[in-house]
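Researcher: Here's a chain I'd like modeled. Treat it as a single chain, no partners, no ligands.
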Amino acid sequence: MATFVSMVGSGLFMTGAALFFTRSVGLSVGQVAVAMGMAAVVGLVAGVPAGRVADRYGPRETYLVIQCVQAAAMAALVLVHSFWAFVLTVSLIRLAASAGAAARGPLTRGFAGPDPTRYRSYLRAAADLAGACGAVMAGVVVQVDTRGAYMALVLADALSFLLCAAVVTRLPYLLPVGEPERGSVSGVSAAGRWGVLKDVPFMVVTALDSLLSLQGHVLVFALPLWIVGHSQTPHWLIGVCGVVNTLMVVVFQVGASRGVVGNVSAGRGAVRSGVAFLLGMAAIAAAAGAPGRLASVLIVAGVVVYTVGELWHAAASFELGFGLAPARAQGQYSGLHATGSGLAGSLAPSVLALFCIIWGVPGWLALGCVFVLAGLAMPYAVRWAGRSRAAPSVADAVPA
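Model: Modeled as a single isolated chain. Structure tokens:
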């Protein structure tokens, strides 16, 4: 319920944010882009420290404080009327969002039971459904197009954080895991206060997963620009592709997680996801030279195949984020994992604009090949990380 409430607010705000910043706050598109870029970079520093706080003082309490900070920062946006005030406010929002992602990892792990990947898959399906509901409501605000409507949108998002915090207060208390003893964390020699920063194999896994995480922005950023500027398809196809992607995630994400039962199987899932990304992107790229109806069929088919890869990657990422993290440092490891995803998100617009829009068809294929290579490298990185831990799980002992 907490995830659903929070994501309704996020879907509501993300859909109307650009119009609020430009039409209500009065900033230019360039100013918004610069400010959001600066905020994204600032937000990267919060993940690991917030995760360590969650490990030491408890994930539920840490997450509650962060949700309240997010609510206050979001509400403060209605008071912003200058560029630097906007930079300061959105930077605080991004810091809180990054910290919240770090604290959410051990919180989820604490209530997930014996199958955290399956549990996290349910949460992702619910989050996508909630985000879609928020986007529909935001459409009403955009249609009204007044400052009062945009302010209501922002305050509704702020309220969603408070409602999320209220739901979290009803969860049972989770004991802090405390500081691990040096050299005792599952055989990882990097154990300690900032052990995750010394765990080189996990950092490599995170880097590969972050590279694959760029895929999450292809259908949101690159595909609409491709449909409008490089294909002979109707613009409403953008909405159709969004609905297809969302419905597939809601319906199939939990099923996609069933075959992921350990770190080794997660590595294999990353391989499959990379291949699916390439095939889906090849179909989308082929639409550039095709007549209207054929181009529409190619794009929708590409989105379907691409979304299958997205489902496989999400399941693999969930398993690796939990399965390679020592029990007494879930927050730290969750924080680094979230930082990697955040870095990918901040780089995504520039990378996708270069590959998919400026380079065109060759760029789509080249980026698909990058995803394939990252997927192929993942099982080797996972085995390296597994060897650095003294007691791999039974699931991970299954040969690939």
